[in-house]
UniProtKB/TrEMBL annotation:
<feature type="transmembrane region" description="Helical">
    <location>
        <begin position="105"/>
        <end position="129"/>
    </location>
</feature>
<feature type="domain" description="Major facilitator superfamily (MFS) profile">
    <location>
        <begin position="17"/>
        <end position="404"/>
    </location>
</feature>
<dbReference type="InterPro" id="IPR036259">
    <property type="entry name" value="MFS_trans_sf"/>
</dbReference>
<protein>
    <submittedName>
        <fullName>Major facilitator superfamily MFS_1</fullName>
    </submittedName>
</protein>
<dbReference type="GO" id="GO:1990961">
    <property type="term" value="P:xenobiotic detoxification by transmembrane export across the plasma membrane"/>
</dbReference>
<keyword id="KW-0813">Transport</keyword>
<feature type="transmembrane region" description="Helical">
    <location>
        <begin position="83"/>
        <end position="99"/>
    </location>
</feature>
<keyword id="KW-0472">Membrane</keyword>
<feature type="transmembrane region" description="Helical">
    <location>
        <begin position="55"/>
        <end position="76"/>
    </location>
</feature>
<keyword id="KW-0812">Transmembrane</keyword>
<feature type="transmembrane region" description="Helical">
    <location>
        <begin position="312"/>
        <end position="331"/>
    </location>
</feature>
<feature type="transmembrane region" description="Helical">
    <location>
        <begin position="141"/>
        <end position="160"/>
    </location>
</feature>
<dbReference type="InterPro" id="IPR011701">
    <property type="entry name" value="MFS"/>
</dbReference>
<dbReference type="InterPro" id="IPR020846">
    <property type="entry name" value="MFS_dom"/>
</dbReference>
<dbReference type="Pfam" id="PF07690">
    <property type="entry name" value="MFS_1"/>
</dbReference>
<feature type="transmembrane region" description="Helical">
    <location>
        <begin position="172"/>
        <end position="190"/>
    </location>
</feature>
<feature type="transmembrane region" description="Helical">
    <location>
        <begin position="343"/>
        <end position="365"/>
    </location>
</feature>
Length: 404
């Protein structure tokens, strides 16, 4: 692609800027998971149905995904720093609006703004690492993405459960506002522009890059695998609190601890993936998906005889660990696939992934409503089986040099 000019840009303090980039990577998980223990209370407080309050998650995911489809080309053409800085400020203001209103439609609008601004921030920070690092160091950082990202789902519901119990659901969004303002100040003080080659913002050229990326089957099918893997987590996030609070009569704090436990599962999958980084790709992915399918089948069978919080969390932990393993493998690959257009590759990867997640998870939840472990096992199976099929297609289409 033709570029307008090239600069040797560096942040004001590279080590602190890198640390801040890692801190911001879990923002999408933080923005969804912190108020998961509050979903039943929000529905009651706002006098709306469970489905309506679940839509706040779906709207965030849709806007987060769609925004990433376009934001990458803007970041490649106009830079990462200022756009992500402004996005942080807007994110914080939108959080304050949600915390101070009981109008569900205004909340919907603010959650859409949350999704758009989070998309800009996350894509910019992913591209930051491709801008700043190369070779083995870049591979090392990319392999940490899923592990670092999983800290959001681990910490957020744990904190959210206590905030809900002590102060109510609004406190979750006051917390997000504080986080946004704090990161805005730190980014302003220590970070800076990192892009080295500004691309011309020409629609025809940008469109051709998008088409070339999507036509690369290993890249596009890899994104589908990402969407299926993360949908498993989101399906639990949308149904788990209602199963535990409504059906099992447990407290929001317990829901928070449960989500923390499953966040550890996602992180465990990332660590396992990093530990077997040099193992044959298709062999380890085949074993992982085979185990995941077996876990879902056993969960379904045993749910007819025993079902409680311990059995739900046991099987969900195993399935989420496998999902984290899949996600980490394919996320690293997709981000490093097109280093010359890091912003577009990052945006396209995250964008399509979250569009898949938002639509697929909502459809699965509608098909298998939150009544208990049996429905949850059906939900998992409905996502794992397509994963096995897609992986088989990827294996069939692999190039000779990719043979295990």
């Amino acid at each position: 692609m033709i570029t307008t000019h090239t600069l040797d840009n560096k942040p004001k303090n590279e080590s602190i800027a890198t640390l801040l980039a890692f801190i911001l990577l879990p923002l999408s998980g933080l923005a969804t998971d912190i108020y998961i223990p509050s979903l039943p209370s929000m529905a009651k407080s706002l006098a709306i149905s469970d489905t309506h309050v679940q839509a706040t998650l779906s709207l965030f995911l849709i806007s987060y995904g769609v925004s990433q489809l376009f934001i990458g080309s803007i970041l490649d053409s106009f830079g990462r720093y200022k756009l992500s800085l402004y996005a942080l400020l807007i994110f914080a203001l939108a959080s304050l609006v949600i915390a101070s209103t009981h109008n569900i439609y205004l909340i919907y609008l603010m959650r859409i703004i949350h999704g758009i601004t989070t998309g800009a921030i996350i894509v910019a920070k992913r591209a930051y690492f491709v801008d700043m690092y190369q070779g083995e160091k870049l591979k090392h950082y990319l392999s940490l993405f899923t592990i670092i990202w999983s800290s959001g789902p681990i910490v957020a519901p744990f904190v959210g459960g206590y905030l809900q119990t002590a102060f109510g659901w609004e406190s979750n969004f006051y917390f997000l506002a504080f986080y946004g303002f704090l990161m805005f100040v730190l980014e302003w003080l220590y970070s800076g522009e990192t892009i080295k080659s500004y691309s011309e913002f020409k629609l025809k050229k940008i469109t051709s890059i998008y088409i070339d990326m999507i036509k690369t089957s290993s890249f596009s099918l890899g994104i589908v695998m990402l969407g299926l893997a993360y949908s498993m987590v989101m399906v639990y996030n949308m149904t788990g609190p209602f199963i535990l609070e409504h059906e099992m009569h447990l407290s929001p704090v317990i829901v928070g601890y449960s989500s923390l436990f499953l966040g550890l599962a996602w992180m465990t999958g990332g660590f396992i993936s990093k530990g077997v980084l040099h193992f044959p790709f298709y062999h380890k992915m085949g074993v992982n998906l085979g185990l995941q399918l077996a876990f879902a089948v056993i969960m379904l069978i045993t749910s007819a005889y025993v079902s409680n919080i311990f059995t739900i969390l046991f099987f969900a932990f195993l399935i989420h660990t496998s999902a984290g393993f899949t996600f980490n493998n394919y996320f690293s690959y997709c981000l490093a696939r097109f280093p010359k257009n890091a912003g577009i590759a990052s945006g396209l990867t995250g964008g399509i992934t979250y569009v898949i997640v938002s639509s697929l998870s909502y459809a699965v939840v509608a098909l298998f409503p939150a009544h208990g472990e049996t429905e949850l096992s059906y939900s998992y199976a409905s996502l794992i089986i397509p994963s096995v099929i897609i992986m088989a297609i990827i294996y069939t289409l692999r190039k000779p040099e990719e043979m295990d």
